[in-house]
TrEMBL record:
Residues 11-169 form the N-acetyltransferase domain. Belongs to the acetyltransferase family. RimJ subfamily. InterPro entries: Acyl_CoA_acyltransferase, GNAT_dom, N-acetyltransferase. Keywords: Acyltransferase, Transferase. This is Ribosomal-protein-alanine N-acetyltransferase.
Length: 178
């Protein structure tokens, strides 16, 4: 599975590979990344990364996570989708690659993939209060903030903290793409 974006021709999404485990682990255990994610403690091991990839990489149905690859085979982040009571996306990018439009391009392609293949009524994303860049990104992609709550603590945070909830209805996405 590969998605290319017109303004970043070498950028694509692909299935995770076991060889991505080291880079995956290195990114999510960085405090500036890991504290924005729920599931990855600072001591998350290479073996745990390999197990997650082995479990989710071959999936064509949710939940799944795709690698962000800048064209050289190196994992620089991921985007993921979970179906359930709400249809949610989650994502992260290596800080060395932030601020270059990579995540915006990847999420735009990923959102189109999700809406066209799985047809949820809307997509949801939750963002910690101290991640203004992610909130701005979601707004640029058409998500609207629908609320906030103090909730589940990240594996790299000491206490539960405020999360902002964003929603993107499929109709809003498709109208904006015309």
């Amino acid at each position: 599975m590969s998605i290319r974006h017109a303004t970043l021709p070498d950028l694509h999404l692909r299935r995770l590979r076991l060889s991505d485990a080291g880079a995956f682990r290195a990114i999510v255990t960085r405090p500036e990344v890991g504290r924005m994610l729920l599931a990855f403690p600072a001591d998350w091991t290479l073996e745990q990364a390999q197990a997650l990839i082995a479990k989710t990489a071959p999936r064509d149905v949710p939940p799944f996570r795709l690698a962000i690859d800048a064209g050289n085979g190196e994992l620089i982040g991921t985007v993921g989708y979970v179906q359930g009571k709400t249809d949610e996306i989650a994502y992260f990018l290596d800080p060395a690659h932030q601020g270059q439009g990579i995540m915006r391009a990847c999420l735009a392609g990923f959102i189109e993939l999700i809406f066209s293949h799985f047809a949820p009524e809307s997509l949801r994303a939750e963002v910690y209060h101290d991640n203004p860049a992610s909130m701005a990104l979601l707004r640029r992609l058409g998500f609207g903030e629908t609320g906030s709550y103090v909730g589940t603590c990240s594996a790299q945070r000491a206490e539960p903290e405020c999360l902002h909830v964003f929603d993107l209805p499929r109709a809003v996405w498709h109208a904006a793409q015309r």
